[in-house]
UniProtKB/TrEMBL annotation:
Protein name per its UniProtKB record: MFS transporter
Gene3D superfamilies xrefs: MFS general substrate transporter like domains (1.20.1250.20)
Ranges for domain Major facilitator superfamily (MFS) profile: 12-399
InterPro entries in UniProt: MFS (IPR011701), MFS_dom (IPR020846), MFS_trans_sf (IPR036259)
UniProt xrefs under Pfam families: MFS_1
Alphabetical UniProt keywords: Cell membrane, Membrane, Transmembrane, Transmembrane helix, Transport
Residue stretches spanning the membrane: 12-35, 47-67, 79-99, 105-121, 142-162, 168-189, 223-247, 259-278, 287-310, 316-334, 346-367, 373-395
Native source organism of the sequence: Bacillus lumedeiriae
Membrane topology: Multi-pass membrane protein
Length: 412
């Protein structure tokens, strides 16, 4: 289709997608290598495993708003390139420490990268806002999320293969090299240009306050925040415990977790492609409501199932609907937020989601000792229903005069 062809010819879009490919290679190799490494060293201790997820997501809660505010002040290309370079250097530093020090340092490989991503990710959103026409945003987000979906299939296989074949040291090295290649791809972006919003001089604190006020006076963004909180609470319960769904509920070896991820990823690929086809006809808020409902049902089934094929089917539908949630959320943020506030809005909403997730993630290991997996998964499903209820008032929301359009026209 002509519009899709124009999207793939966009130089900025190409660079972001190639960068995303390298980042996903590094992230999945790192995540699975660290998970399997910690499993081996702790004999599957639930607390240690849950702390991996805390190291990955806690920085989002702490640094997201600050990173989003700086993303609105800094040049997006330069910010993203330097974040990838610093992530690579931090990974290599962890590798050196791992060779000569304690194994527990592997947690820092995840922690430092997660901190830097809070400055890089909103800059990527800003590039989407700056360089993609309004009618291509949802299609662009669909392609971007499909890259993530592909690695939901390939990532666990790649990460497990790297760790089992080469060990933790080579796996960490692969992660660092992948981050450097991502930085090289982003270096091919057009030179950053000054934006209209940068003409006024304000302090960091003033910009943070104005970002909060902006979200509070926009009904759709406020309701999105409540939805984020509920979904975060639900995901936090199950994120660190998925491996126990495999080892205890299904009675399979821990390495079989990769097949759950693979089935989920296949669903994401199909779902992402479906949303891309429907990008011009499906309203993002409707995608979000439908995705939340189906994911709630899928999580509920997984919590009760002791049959491998039933669990895999539920995981497939979770993956199928996940792009509806992710693309719906990101498209709503891009469509309903002025370019000058993209970083701060992202920086406010992300901690609501991640802070809630980290909260329940931190106690997931303790709850695992006191409650059954079924109860924990059903509680997570209930949180998704609550999140869907918050978003329902937006289901029939009409398209407004997009706040981002004026800034786009100014750029032209």
């Amino acid at each position: 289709m002509p519009q899709s062809a124009n999207l793939f010819r966009n130089r900025v879009f190409q660079a972001i997608i190639i960068s995303g490919l390298f980042l996903q290679i590094g992230i999945w190799v790192r995540n699975f290598a660290v998970l399997l490494f910690v499993m081996e060293h702790t004999n599957g201790d639930p607390f240690a495993i849950s702390m991996i997820s805390v190291a990955e997501f806690a920085p989002i809660f702490i640094f997201s708003f600050i990173g989003g505010t700086f993303a609105d002040r800094w040049s997006p290309k330069r910010t993203m390139v330097w974040c990838d370079i610093l992530s690579a250097f931090s990974v290599f530093a962890v590798l050196v420490t791992l060779l000569f020090g304690t194994w527990k340092v592997v947690f820092f490989a995840t922690l430092i990268s997660a901190i830097l991503s809070q400055f890089s990710q909103p800059s990527g959103m800003k590039l989407f806002k700056m360089h993609l026409p309004e009618q291509q945003m949802q299609a662009g987000m669909s392609v971007y999320q499909t890259v993530f979906a592909v690695f939901m299939v390939l990532g666990p296989i790649l990460g497990t293969f790297a760790f089992q074949s080469f060990g933790i040291h080579v796996s960490i090295t692969i992660t660092g090299i992948a981050f450097l290649l991502s930085a090289a791809a982003l270096a091919c972006l057009p030179k950053d240009r000054k934006m209209e919003e940068e003409t006024s001089k304000t302090t960091l604190l003033q910009e943070m306050k104005s970002g909060i006020k902006y979200v509070l006076r926009k009904k759709e963004l406020s309701l999105l925040g409540f939805c984020f909180m509920a979904a975060g609470l639900g995901l936090g319960f199950i994120q660190p415990l998925s491996i126990f769904l495999v080892t205890e509920q299904l009675g399979l070896p821990k390495e079989n977790l990769q097949w759950l991820f693979m089935v989920n990823g296949i669903g994401m690929i199909i779902g992402g492609a479906g949303v891309m086809v429907l990008a011009k006809t499906a309203a993002p808020q409707r995608l979000l409501v439908f995705g939340m409902l189906v994911n709630a049902l899928g999580i509920a089934v997984m919590g009760l199932s002791t049959n491998l094929w039933l669990t895999l089917t539920a995981e497939f539908f979770n993956g199928l609907m996940l792009p509806c949630i992710q693309i719906g959320i990101n498209t709503m943020i891009l469509q309903r937020t002025e370019g000058a506030f993209i970083g701060r809005v992202n920086g406010i909403l992300s901690p609501l989601f991640t802070g809630s997730m980290v909260l329940t993630m931190s106690i997931a290991g303790v709850l695992k000792e006191q409650l059954s997996l079924a109860i924990i998964f059903e509680s997570a499903a209930a949180m998704f229903i609550v999140g869907m209820i918050f978003i329902l008032p937006l289901y029939n929301m009409k398209a407004e005069a997009k706040p981002g359009v004026p800034s786009s026209e100014d750029e032209r």
